[in-house]
């Protein structure tokens, strides 16, 4: 009777086991990379908006960017308060909003990049690119905040 029944193969036989399917995409890494690109776009919007605002302010006052060296901070604040409402306030608001969004977007991109980097069996390129794009922006924004805090602390003393 033993010769009639087919022999059952063991499930531990390597011929019958399959490797887990390797993932071809990493959602966290891709999101981190896209947030890094979005962050660069936000910084460009902030810089262009501030340049546009101060260009309009200079046009209203009849001065150039080189003339700012002769002014002190009180004169610049007076010009901004006097002509600021005429000198494209929309570009100022947009640039401030964009610059305020860079820190949380960059922080989220760094967190998602680390999560994507720690996933097993997932590609790491998107996570690495996300970290490369987000980490310097986060460090620069943090350094700028520290320098501005240090400048205001020394100015008040």
List keywords for this structure.
157 residues; mainly alpha; elongated
List the helices and strands and how they pair.
Elements: H1 27-61, H2 73-83, H3 89-118, H4 125-156
Helix pairs in contact: 1-3, 1-4, 3-4
How does this model look, in words?
This protein has 157 residues and is mostly helical. It has a domain of 100 residues. Helices cover 69% and strands 0% of the residues. The protein has four helices and no strands. Helix 1 runs antiparallel to helix 3. The mean pLDDT is 81.
Shape: elongated
Fraction in helix = 55-70%
Main sheet, how many strands, which sense, barrel?
none
Q: N-to-C SSE series?
A: HHHH
Structural class: mainly alpha
Euclidean distance between termini CA atoms: 100 Å
Number of strands: 0
> In percent terms, what proportion of residues is strand?
under 5%
The gyration radius over C-alpha positions equals 28 Å
The average pLDDT is 81
What count of helical segments does DSSP give? 4
Are there runs of 5+ residues with pLDDT below 50, and where? none
Quick description:
With 157 residues, the protein is mostly helical. It has 4 helices and no strands. 69% of the residues lie in helices and 0% in strands.
């Amino acid at each position: 009777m033993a010769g009639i029944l087919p022999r059952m193969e063991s499930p531990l036989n390597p011929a019958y086991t399959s490797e887990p399917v390797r993932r071809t995409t990493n959602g966290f890494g891709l999101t981190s990379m896209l947030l890094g690109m979005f962050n660069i776009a936000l910084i460009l919007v902030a810089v262009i908006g501030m340049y546009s605002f101060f260009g309009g302010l200079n046009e209203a006052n009849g001065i150039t960017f080189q003339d700012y060296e002769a002014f002190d901070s009180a004169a610049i604040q007076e010009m901004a308060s006097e002509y600021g409402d005429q000198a494209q306030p929309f570009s100022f608001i947009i640039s401030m909003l964009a610059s305020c969004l860079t820190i949380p977007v960059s922080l989220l991109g760094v967190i998602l990049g680390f999560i994507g980097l720690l996933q097993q069996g997932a590609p790491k390129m998107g996570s690495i690119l996300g970290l490369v794009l987000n980490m310097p922006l986060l460090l620069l924004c943090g350094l700028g905040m520290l320098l501005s805090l240090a400048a205001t602390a020394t100015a008040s003393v």
